Amino acid sequence: MSEIKWLKYALTHVSDGFEELRFRKKGSVKIAVVIVLMFFVADVVSDRLYGFQFRISDDRTFNVIPHITSSIGLFLAWVTGCSAVSTFLDGEGTARNTAIYTAYALVPYIAQKLINTILSHVLTRDEFTFMQIIQLAGTFWTVILLFSAVKAVHRYTFIRTVISIVTTVFFMLIMLFLLILFMSLIQQMWLFVSAVYTEILYRIRG
Known about the structure:
By secondary structure, this protein is mainly α. It has helices at residues 3-12, 17-24, 29-48, 64-88, 95-105, 107-119, 128-154, 158-205.
């Protein structure tokens, strides 16, 4: 069975798909990387190309950094947090498998973003309910797959999987707080250096 077929198997067999991947030692890093890149692309496409009758975007204020943060950054934070938490909960999975299985689980969410972007140019406001159903279905499917992936990769029980996911989210919030604190510190340092440079330049010219 090819790696693409294993991906399809994991997506369509929610209960034992990732268990089978772990048992067979399957999962492709290359496919995972492509999926994460598609996660980023879908985020940009959904924000910039959505139908104007549903969402208006200002092309003049496009900034790629928020899209990288909300896609690739979020993925890396989840993998880092999940791997770190597994060391405290005696998880058996590796960071590699955690990353691969997480990427695989993102496929339905990515698909619903791209599908809804296309439908936003076809459907009317009165038919927005169909797009909401697709969004909810894709998001819910990904959540279930993520749960199954964490449970399979670390060989957790149901309760320990719940604890792991909640702890991982908490860990991600801490990382986000530290990142915001770090960025704020960098900004303050930049303003200080800029002010000192301006003052020195003013005195030299004066």
